[in-house]
Request: fold
Amino acid sequence: MVCLGAFETPDSCEEWRREYALEVPVLPDEDGTLFRRLTSGWVPWSILVGADGKVVFSENEFDEEGFSAAIADLLAGRRPSAAATAAESPMEPPSRASGSTTTVVLGGGIGGVVVARRLRARVGDGHRIIVIDRSESHLFQSSLLWLLNGSRREDQIRKPLARLRRHGIEFLNEEIIGIDVDRRLVTTARATHPFDYLVVALGARTAPESAPGFTEMAHDLYSADGCRDIRDALRRFRGGRVGVVVTSIPFKCPAAPYEAAFLVEALLRRRGIRDCCEVHLYTPEHQPMPVAEASVGASIVDMLAARGIHYHPLFTFERMRPGTKEIVDAEGRSERADLWIAVPPHRVPDVVRSAGLSGVSGWIHVDPETLRTGHPRVYAIGDVTSIRLPSGKSLPKAGVFAHHEAEVVAAEIASQIRGESSSAHFAGDGACWVEVGGGRAAFARGNFYRDPEPRMRVVAPSRLRHWAKVAFERWWLWRWF
Amino acid sequence: MKVLEESAGGVEAGESISLADLGRPAGGGRATLLVFWKRL
Reply:
């Protein structure tokens, strides 16, 4: 192991080595030459290089279990499972057109629902499509913010997954406890389900319990219960400081913490108590929507400033102190608020990890265009995946990508079932609204696969765009259920 | 995590790099874990 101090001097390296009692070389990269060449500019950054000089992984997201497995594989002379990608695994020949097939879709979120519906539209009833989810209903997550400001009740943003049965899709309301891609079996708490094709659309689970102090002190922005609690707390709020904090990255929907801040500010203004309140937003990101170009982030920063929302980028959250209602960052800096709204840590579902499907990033690595994993006829879409962009960063987690990816996978599976080749591919296009309060929304769209960096355009807020978001929500829930 | 300089650089899995700059010859018979850090 070699530690390299980016822009550090020999003296500071030696001081750091002694401070942590390291017995490995700690070398200075004073002018950052190696840092710039080998990384995308973030610290810490880890690169495992085999004895042959080939890079096994190069990541800034730390996944202890994935790293340990990759290092163990390398030392044992095995090809690390995390390094296997769809591009490297042999192409599975298209299935023959004859005979019935079974496609199992894990997860009834946006990706799972769209892939099942689109596949059913393309293949006959002789082929089974099974959706499995532990929840009996689909929750339209982008409308959680409207629970927060009282614009929606929960029943208005949920649809029963049993409705998929009307469209010739089997729905099993069961807990998935095992995925065996070698034996091609999915095990639930009730039964074992063999598959010919598997689509993993299990999303990202939130883990507020893994952020110290979160459950005692903060309201969860990413759950229906949490958003209702926030709504009620804001109704009772008499004045003081409201803090929105991102506890770790990545998280679903890049705009959500910013939308929460905007909506909170608008709500306080509507209640007539804005003058005795402050709204603060803390995040480890260097800009809003960090994957996009600087101008996108700058436009959102301007919107925050225009509303008097205090923006604190590069705040690397470490823990909460419930006794003093403070958040503390990695440098020991503390900030206090009277009401905390927090983005919880996001994790890959346990069943994905225990199936050995997740890569060193902790998420499932897939081919950026076909969404194939390294396993034959096994796909993964949406928030459960990690897709590296030409810029070196990861594709954000957002429903729009899950939707487009689902369309591609449905087309590819249908082609294989018919014994044809498929030209469907995901091109990296995405769009989202950004609610700014007061019945207005901005709109951002662009292409994330553009080389060298994504190209996005943000359109200024308007009431029309807010109503377009409302219309989209209504249409989407009607169209797919 | 903290960004020092946003860039489109960086090596990816599968690429070959030389560790000669670190005094380690290519094919030196050992795997190497490089960890970039910065005192914040």
Q: What stands out?
A: Chain A has a mean pLDDT of 90. Chain A has three domains: 3-83, 102-204+348-426, 206-344. The first strand of chain A starts at residue 2 and ends at 6. The domain at 206-344 of chain A is CATH 3.50.50.60 (FAD/NAD(P)-binding domain).
